Every structure is written in structure tokens, then in C-alpha cells.
## 1
Amino acid sequence: MLEANFEKKLWSFNLEGRFAAGNEIVVLWGPSGAGKTTVLHCLAGLNSPESGFIKLNGRVLYSSGERTDIPTRSRNMGYLFQDYALFPHMTVRQNVQYGVRCRKNNKEGFSFDPEKLLDSFGVGHLSGRYPRQLSGGEKQRVALARALAVRPQLLLLDEPFSALDKNTKIVLRKEIKRIHRDWQIPFVLVTHDEEDAMYLGDKIISLEKGTVREKSLLLMHTGS
Amino acid sequence: MFTQGFDWHPVILSLRVAVIAVISVTLLGLPVARLMARREFYGKEMLEAAITLPLVLPPSVIGYGLLILIGKNGLVGQALSGMGLSIIFTWWAAVLASTVVAFPLMYQSAKAAFGSVDMNYEKAARTLGAGEVRIFFTVTLPLAWPGVLAGLVLSFARALGEFGATLMVAGNIPGQTQTIPLAIYFAVESGDNATARTLVGLITIFSFLVIFWVNRRARSFLKTY
């Protein structure tokens, strides 16, 4: 369960992030420049809001009142970057292992088989390749596997389909829905595409110049 | 090429001085460059100008400055002599001179290289649970490697060729502080052209090989990513 209620001053307007997410896909929908990515950055701790709070499964990650601001590395969130940000100097396998190696040092190690995880995303045969040798769709699958390898309590996805052609996008949209069913954690997905929002969103929040509104699309979606 | 009884001391000393200077330049330069590439703070531009200054100052000015600093009556010199140490006119002074003049080259290359690493990679590493030190060694440094390597080579070359400041703070003591550039200068001065020629040949071939190797490495790196 993610609870967010914060404000962030951007150069031209005030951004309000006010929403909650259970084990569902929340879509932040809005035009570019509306502050969607900033909301994700605030949730992940890559950026700090001015006021308010962010809680994940009851744990306070940010609170202006309590002066808490947990660093990104301890927030236990997965983040799928718009350009995937796969480490170019590591193989697919090393990319997926990166997060697990980081956590092993400070926390209890869990059994982890990178090949098995990659297999479940349909990219097991690519584990020895470097990111530059992958197609856009393959990169996204690897990036998803990497983000989920650390068993996050929340997955953030920033415009996951913007770099993909139509057919790949349709396949991967379906894939993300399936992954969500399997993992049972809240997903917060940012998109400017109405169709993606309607297809994926259990809840759609529209963001326009920082103002938050529950979208009427929601009714159309849940009604259908 | 080598006449009997060729004095290898300057060669060995030069290499030793340059290697130690490059190690100190790296240990000092990489953290400073990393900080300056990503952080903004008050007085950053002033600090940056001060760091780069040894690159544009005449070596004699640096030599004089170091003399004042580590000389018998200098600030550092007095502190050292309190501990029973003196580095002036020893080969450690040559290391110091080389370090000071080579530092800006390492700093400039490394800073440009760190700055050009896409910040999204570092952010991604952070979301995967990595701390800042781990990110530096596993993400930033490997991706900035061609630039850092260029900095290593440039500062090594600069340290190897240091003449003016070295002469002023370390002197020209054969077998003790006489590096290749000094040995060449004083060999020519005293009409010993055979020694001068040999040393010039050695340092030219060595420098050529190093730069050749680095260029090849940099190209193979660019092919990989």
C-alpha cells in the first residue's frame, strides 16, 4: 500500500501528488511538462518534495513533519526508466544481478537465479549479451527483470512504451499486466498515451500543470 | 646505441618520480573531479580556477612557490623539520613538483569524463540499492574510463617531462635528483652529446609507445559501447 500526499515547487507551478495505491496499477496520465516524472522521482527519493509525506506499507519514506527522507537505495522500490538505463558496460546477466549484489552486503541474502528470472521475462537466451545488442522490446524486458530482481515493494514505470513500435508495445502492455498479477505489488505508471492509460490503469490520475484529478476515463475503463 | 658505462640513474629516477606522482594525482584528482562534476556550491568557480592554475603558470613560478612552502623557513618545511624531515633537494621534492603540475591535467580529463556519464545510470544504480561509493566504482568510473585513462597518460607525460619546478626544488644532484630532462639539459651543457642523444631517444620511443597503446585501448573501448 502506497500513500502519497506531497507538494513540490517546480519552476512554473506547484505540483501536488495526492493518491494512494493498493496492489493495483495506478496510471499518472498527462501531457509532457505536467510533472509526471517528478512525481516518480519524489516517490523514489531521487528528488525531495517540499512538504507532505510518502508512506509505503506503513513505513514512512518521506515526511516533512518528522524530517524523514529515506535515501533512494533503502526505499526498496523498482524503477523502470524511460530509456531503461541498462548499464552499457555490463551483460544482461550482470545488469540483473547488480541490485541483488548491493543488497546482499547489508541484508539477508535470498536465493536468486538470474537465468530463471530472465527466462520468465522471455529473455533468458540473451543473458550473455550487452545492452547495445538488444532491441527496444528486449531492453525493456531486461530492465523490468532488473528492477524486479531486488523484490521491490513498489514498481515505478516512466513512459515504458515511448521508445517502442506499436506491435511491441501491445505485447509488452499485456506482459506488464501479467507481471503485475504475478507480483502483487502496487505499480505506478506514467504515460501521456490515453490508450495505454485505459488499458493498464486500475486507477487513472490525470495531471495537468500539477493539478491532480481522478480521470473520467476511469469510469469508462471500469465500466467496460 | 648504449655506450659502455651508460648512467641509468636518471631513467630509473624519472620513472619512479612519474609513477608516484601519477598515483598521488589519481588519488587526489579523481575524488575532486567527481565532486566538481556533479555538485554546485558557493565559490566553485574560484576553486576551479585555483585548481587549474598550475597548468598555465610558468614552471619557475610553481618552483618558487614550492621553495617558499617546503624550504627551510617555509610553512611546510618548518613543520617537517620539526619531525626531523626535510624533502627539499631530495627526489621527493621532484615528486611534489611533478604532482602539482600534473594535477590539473588529471582533474580536467576526469571531470569532463565524469560529467559525460549519463546521470540516469547513477540514478538506476541508486534505485537498485547501491550506495554512492559503490556507484562510483561500478558505474561512474567504468563508464568514464577512456577520459580517466587520457588523464592518467597526460599527467604521466607531464610528470615525466617536468623540468623547471623540479630543478628549483630538487636541484640537479646526479644519482639522487637528476631526472631525464635535467640529465639531458646538463649533458648538452657540458658537451656530452652521446648521453643526451641516448636519453632523448629513450624518452621519445617510450612516450610514443605509451600514447600508441592508449589510443588503441580507447578505440577498442568506444567499439564496445
Note: Residues 216-224 of chain A have pLDDT under 50 and may be disordered.
## 2
Amino acid sequence: MLIFVLKRLASTIPVVLIAITACFFILRLAPGGPFDQERALPPEVLANLRAYYHLDDSLIVQYLRYLGRLAQLDLGPSFVTKDFTVARQIAIGLPYTLILGGSAFLLAILGGIVAGIYGALYHNRSADWLIGAVAMTGLVVPNFLVAPILQLVFGVRLGWLPVGGWGDGGPRFLLLPVLVLALPHIARISRLMRGSLIETMNSNFIKTATAKGIGRRRVVLGHALRPALTPVVSYLGPAAGYLLTGSIVVEQIFGIPGIGRYFVNAALNRDYGMVLGTVIFYMALIVLLNLLVDLAYAWLDPKVRQR
Amino acid sequence: MTLYAGKREALEDAFLGRDDEMPRGKPRSVTRDAMRRLRANKAAMTALFVFAFIVLAALVGPYLIPYDYETPDWNAFTAPPSIESGHYFGTDQNGRDLLARTLYGTRISLLVALIATAVSVVVGVLYGAVSGFAGGRIDSAMMRFVDVMYALPYILFVILLMVMFGRNVFLLFAAIGLLEWLTMARIVRGQTLSLKEKEFVEAARAAGVSSFPIILRHIVPNLVGPVVIYASLTIPEIVITESFLSYLGFGVQEPLTSLGTLISEGTGAIGAADWLLLFPGGVLVTMLLALAFIGDGLRDAFDPKDR
Amino acid sequence: MSFSFKTFTGALALSTVLALGAAHAKELVMYNGGDVTSLDPHKLSGDWEDRVEGDIFEGLFTEDAKAKPIPGVAESYETSEDGLTWTFKLRDDAKWSDGEPVTAEDFVFAFKRLMDPKTAAQYAYLQYPIKNAAAINTGKIDDLDQLGVKAVDDKTLEITLEQPVPYYPSLLTHYTAYPVPKHLIDKVGDDWVQIGTIVTDGPYKPVEWVPGSHVLTARNEYWHGGQEKLDIDGVRFLSMEDVSAGFRRYQAGEIDLMTDYPKDQFKFIQENLPGEGHFAPFAGLYYYVFNTSKPPFDDEKVREALSLAVNREVIGPKVLGSGEPAAYGWVPPGMNNYPEEGARFDWASEPYPERLEKAKALLEEAGYGPDKPLNVTLSYNTNDNHKRVAVAIAAMWKPLGVNVSLENTEVKVHYANLRQGAFEVARAGWLADFNDPVNFLDLLKSGIEMNYGQWSNEDYNQLLAEAAKTQDLDQRAGILEKAEKIALDRDAALPIYFYLSENIVSPKVKGFEDNVFDKHRTRWLSMTE
């Protein structure tokens, strides 16, 4: 198992390198630079700034310098948020992102699986229909529409919950943003779960189990659930990725710091170092999550494990 | 409630119909069978009519109303809906008829969604099935490539594409479509991995059928269930992705518009000019719900396991 | 269902307990727009940063509640006959937040650091009136000691200028003229701005900074003004991009002061929050710039026709909704050293239909008509307000037979295009840095980076040069007005409206005075619980 993990990690290194290289050059080829702004700078000052951040060297030299620093785990300075290095800013944003994204991820998995099982067990009955309708709504309403409405209802009108901000990071502050972030994924997972569980329940081995007189609950939890989880698990990798990018909107609307917001602002501000830093961070996280998904996959389906 | 009842009746009809047919020993066509069941599914058929109406309205509507989508009515800025003025949906902040803009926005959103989904389905299914079926080195290489694509936070892709080549609707299709196939490919691969261990595939292989025909004849048809479910999830997701980009300011170029752009403009006016959000939002949600019901209907109709 | 409801109520109960423990001092929560990029006064560029910086630092001069320059660290000053040498006597009790005195040497160090090319200060050019400043900053002089700033003794500072500057006190309130703590920078270098290390000389000091979230300040107990003069204990400057979300937080009482607002809510605010919306004239101009280096915009007739056809009375009240005043001149009203209303377009008071006819005739003269329509690309940076103005103006140009294609890009691309001249007609804007009309008139001077359209007129340049040498303020105002008139007659650019400052202020906050610079230092504000 350990060898499998190490091998997988080693094989991602070229992937990450290619991605960094692509990002580096795409970013530099995009028009606009970090120092283009509402008030144009005199050419001399612009030259000073470019020299200060070594942007006046050739692209190849800059690229090699970046890789060299990266090898020493140095992500370099931020061109826009000048008082922080890229690494420090990511370290500051990380806990927020992890708490927000992690809570939403857990909520999406738990909520989605529970709702999906309910839907499958009460297949074509009112509970199923109700869950289906809620899930459908969760899917089709964009989060930047859900968020303001929830803010208005629970924050402004009812005054039950804070409208925004991180506050003390307590559940009061987290509830709305986590819910908004998790909603479409709860919906998607519940639909996948329901569909797959219905399919499994119709398969021969379950029919045999039922015929043997094993209780319905035990059949579902003991026999059907594990194989039925396969499509859900294969969705988790992408879901994690979507949660990370989806958090951009949630972070903006709720005024919460986080890597997603750093990333978008950095891309808009052409803060090259910061963009690359967040991209590397994202890639590492996504690679890691996909690895976990693969392991879960192997656990769920013994036939896959053998290979 | 009525929806659920209709669905069950539909399924019962399907069962009865099959029983009638069986004794006559006619060869059954999967597609014809499915279509018949789909026609009997009242929820799906209602959704289909609603969707057809929206499409028709988007295509023909603009020619039937007195206002176009780009000329301001200098006498009516942010005017509420009214029958007398002929602005049935009211006007936006630039005095443009909201009905006309909603119809045009629907056109653009539909175009984006349909093309992008088609791209993602074709590419994703073929890629995933080949990868899963081939297995071994080919599989792991192909999945590595998907990882590369995943590991690039895709919003950066789109932002850079939009920035480098200007705001072009067709680039939007390409960008979104080429991102969505990744998830499709993964899900299909996951399914294929389990499918290919199934008896009928092993039988075909034992009979000496070569790989590609097996994929096309045995694997792909059995993927219809998950693919249809996922595609029905993908369309709303693409529309939402498009609106997400609009929210971040990367939408289509004025004076063109999309439902997402209209909604993101409307969210700022909640409480002050609700119609700006209600009408485009209503159309979007109706359209996406209809699509979701159609997707479900297709699933019920196509899924061989339910028979 | 019951399961999820229980966790929901559980979460509510738990959070109530947490909220009870979080009582704190009088803290003003402000919606501050963008993310602060630095606390170093030499590395800033935005007005949202100025709001933080102006609370934590204090220059020789500072602003009163109405943003008029008043002595800050300077106790008194003298000006030489020729207006070139300014001698400042510093307050004895001016101290950094670590208790060290603020000395003349701190100012000398700060100005040298500002001009040192190695610092790469973005706004160094604002202080170019100082002798040799431009030469040092652009690398023509290597010796920093040549800068016209000198410490006579610990508490006496002497600044020599290149030429007399009548608005110099106003310029000294700018953050580029703030002192920096030499004793600290000598010790720790660039790390001096880190929270926990930084010392400042203003009424407040920064104590917490989470990028993407907020900067928090607290009282500076060493500030010379006296603690009893400060009512508010600290400010939480929130960085938020989504102004609608910010407004909802304001409505829920989580924010006390909004420095911007969602335009669609204007009517709602006027009707439901009477007295809370502060919309006041603001020294800023919103304009379109023509690329005069490219045909057809090198043709004055085309430019005039396009300008005539813009119905400015509609833009502020209807398109934007908060009633921004129409701009028929180049210099916003209310600037110092200038008549309340400077030059205006000759046709400013003509009725719109007549102007439209005139515009059509002009375009025809220029060779455009029904069979040869004029095609214009109008560029603006991505923003809801810019979009609305552009859409409205495109529609106003349409009756002239002008085909407009709109092109919006992100702000960085937009300004890169402007800098490189890659545009036809583009949106631009300017906010005054100091209280003088040259702030705006300089934008059209030849060889200036901000003159994006590269409009060039010798008479105009000469008038500006002449005004710079004129000491008599009335005479100077006359010369500047003449220059403004030339710019308008030749349609150098297309002024559209003058900005309004748009603040939404909670009734809890007292002492908020509207002013043309939209500067409201926290020391003048107070709060009721």
C-alpha cells in the first residue's frame, strides 16, 4: 500500500511541473502586468519596479529562477500585497479555506449519501419526491443567487445569523457559507447515490439476499451500500476541486478570506508569484485528494484492488 | 405529489407494455422501447413541453415583441413591469426591455449549454471507456492526463482564455466544454472498470471480439444510465458555470447577454428592482428544472436495470 | 429531517454562547472596498489604502474634518520670499507608537527613501516639486543627498522646491509625504511594516491584518493629540469586493460605514434610510479619452460631434441613478485656487436636439454619413457602472449613424492598452491627489503618461508652463482657465460627469462631514453605542 502511495505521488511530480510551466508562460503571455493601473507610472518608475522584482530579465531566466527558488520551497514575493510573501499569505488563508471547504465537503458527503439512501429506499414515494425536488432546486439555483437570499432572510430580516464575516469562526458564522457551498454537491451526490443504490438493489445478489429473508435495512447497509458508493466516490475528487473554486463566490459574498479569493484577485491583478503559488497549492491539494479517492475506490471494489 | 404519481404510473405502463410484447417474440429495440416509456412519463413529457416552449420563445420571441434588446427607452429606466408601456418584464438600468434581453439571454445560455454538453459527452464517454477498458499502462497514462487537466484550477484557464483572446462566446463553449469532459471521463472510466469484469464482457472477449467493438457494443450502451444522469447534471452546471463567470465579470460582451449575466446584474437590485432578478431567474430555474426532469425521465426510460 | 433540524438548533445555541463572550471596545466597522496592499506609505496606490494610512500616520500637514490641510507634525512653518524654501518646526511631543520622538531626520530619511529608485515607490512623482527629486528618482542623479530636504536640527526641517507650489500644504497631507521610523528601518529593514513590528505616528496603529479580510487598528497611546480627543478605539477596515453583500451587512448592523454602495439601491436608501446616504460632490472626473494619434479621432470634428451627442443630463440621474453632476468642463467644481466654475463648452447650455443636429452636420463635414458610417470601438474596464455608461453612450451615438462595438476588459488589460495606445475611445477617470486644478489639467499635457490619447497642443502646454511660474494666485487661475478652455474647444477628451462621494453612514456615527476629497479621518468621528 505504501509503495502504491509513493509511486502515485512520484508520478505526479512531472504533472505538477508541466502545469507550473504552462501556467508560468500563459500568465506572462496574457496582456497587462502587475503595475498597470488607473494612474499610469512614469517609465522610469516602471523600470525601477520591474528591476526590483526582476521582471526585466528574459522570460527563460525568470522561469529558471522561479524553479530554482521553488526547489528551495520559496514561493517568492507577492507583487501586489507587498508586505507578505506568497507563502505567508497562503499560510494565512489556508485555515479559512480548509475549515470552510472541509466542512462543506463533509456536509456534502453526509447529506448527499443520507438523502440518496432515503430517496432509493422510498423509491417513487413522497419522501423520494421531496428529496428529489429539494436536490433539484439546490442544483439549479446558482450559489451567488442563493447566498444573497439566505443573507437577506436569515441575516437582515430575521437577524438570526450574521450576514457575513468570519467573526470568531464559530458555527454561527460558518453555517450560511458552508451551506451555500455544499448545497449543489449535496444535490449531486444524493442523485448519484440514489440512482446507483436503486441499480444495486435490483441486482441479483441483493435479490438473493432479500430472498433469504434478510431485513431490508440490513440488506441496504450491509450489502448494497458499499458497491453503490462507487459512483459517489469517483465524484468526490472533482467535487473537492469544485468546492475549492466554488468557494471564490462564497468567500466574496460572505467576506471571508481564503485561497480562492487570493487566487482570483491575484489573477486579475497579474500578481504572477501569487497566482503560481496558489496554483501550486491547489494542484498539491487536488492531487492529494485524488489519491485518497483512488484508495477509497480500491477499498470499495475488491476487483479494482487486485489490479 | 402529482409528479410522483405520474412517474409511478408511467413505470407500471412500461412493465405492462413489455409483458404484452414478450409473447409475440418480436425483437425489441432498446431505443424504441425507451422512447415509448418516455412518452408515457407524464413528468418528463411536461418538462419536455416546457423546455420546448422556452426554446421556441427564445428563437421566435424576439421577432414578436416591439422592443429590441439593445436600444434604451429613454423614458423608462429601471421601470417595473407594465402592460401599458409594453415592457411586460419591465426595463433594466439602461432602459432596455427586459423581456427582449431575457429571450436573447436564454438563447445564449442554451447555446453555451448544449454545445458544451455535447462536447463533454462525446469526448468524455469515448475517453473514459477507452481508458477504463484498456487498463494497465494506457489507462494510467490517460488518467494522468486527466489529472494534469484537473490540477490546473480551471477558472484560471477560462480567465486567461477570455483575457488573451477577448470575450468570445465560442471560446466560452470551448473552454467550458473541454473542462466538463474530465468528470464525465472519470465517471465513465470508473463504471467501465467494474463493467469489464462482468460476465457478458468476459464472454464477448472469450468469443474473440476485439476491443473497440466491445467498447462500442457492450460497454457504451451499459453506460447510458450514468451518462444520461451525469449529462442531465452537466447542463445546469454549465449554465451555472457561465453565470459564475458572469458574476466574476467574465461574461459575454455587451450588448449581448446571457441568463447568468442578467441574474448577476439582478442580484444587486434585490429589494429595489426585484423584477430584474425574478424574470431571468425564473426562466433559468424553470429551464433547468425542466432539463433535470427530462434527464430523469430519460434515465428511467433507458436504464435496462429497471426493467 | 429531524436529524438535520437538531444539529441546526444545536449550532444556534452554541453560537449564542460564543457571541456573548465577544464584547469589545468602541470599534468602527468600515466597508473599505479593495484589499490593502501594504502599510508602507511608499508602496501604496489606492484610496482604500489611504483611509487606513491616514489614520495611522501623520505628515507635516494633516486633514481636518472637512479635509482642509491643517498642521500635523509641523507646529509652525515659514516660507521664503521666492516661495522656494519651506522651513518647518516640528512638534516636541510628536512620537512614534513605541515612544521614540518623530524627528526631522525621519522626514529626510522618508523623502530620500521615497525618491530612491531602489524603493520603486509608485507615487514618488507626486513629490517631484522637491528640488532634484525627479532627477534622483529617474536615476539622473545618483547622490541621494542632493535632494532638497534637510534636517537643520532634530526638530527643524527645511524643504527646497524646484519652483513655487501654491498648494504645497495640501500636497504634504498626501501619504507620499509621511515620515517613516528611521530608527526601526535601520534595525530591521523591509520587515518594519510587519504587524507587531511596525510603529506609526498617527492617532492609531495597526494591530491585525488578515489579507482578504480586514486591517484592524487601535489607539496609539503616544499620539501627540491626546487620547481624550479620540472617541473611537479602533477601526476594522473590511476588504470586500461585493458591494451588494456589504450593503446587506450594513443593513443588518454589522457595518457602520460604507465607502461605496450598490447603485440600484439609491431609491431604497433615500426612502428607507433617510439621512444615512451621503452623496456629495467629489473632486474627480469621469471621462472618455480619444486616441488622437489614430484616424478618425485625430479629426476635431469627429471628436466634437461625439461629445455633442452625449446627453450628460441623463447619465447621472437616470443611468447611474445617484445624480452625478454633468461635466461640461474639465476641472471639477470646488477646487482651491480656481473659480468655482472654470471654463465650459460653448454649447453647454444649448438644448440637446439642437446639439444632435450640429453633431450630425459635423460628422458629415468630416466625411461620415449614411453610406459611410463611423465605426467606433468603445473600451471600458469590467465594472457595472462603466458598462451602464458605455451602453447609454453607445445608444446616444447611434442616431448619428455611428456603429459602436463595446469592448470590456479587466482593469489591468484596460490600462495596459491605454498605456500602449491600443484603443479608439476608452473610459478613464481621475481623482484629485491634492487641492489644485493642475491635478486635472496636467492630464492633457504633452509627454505625460496619463495623457493616454496623446492629445497635444503647444498653446496649452505653454499656458501650463506659464502658470507654474506665476506666484499671484488670481493671475494663475486666469491662465489655467484659458488652458482649460483650449482643451474644451479642441475636444481633447470627452468629460462626462464629475464623481460624487458615496458614503452610507450609520446614525450611530457622528461627526461625518461631506467634503470634496472624501477624506474622513477617524479622529474626527465619534460613535454612540
Note: Chain A touches chain B through 69 residues (CB under 8 Å).
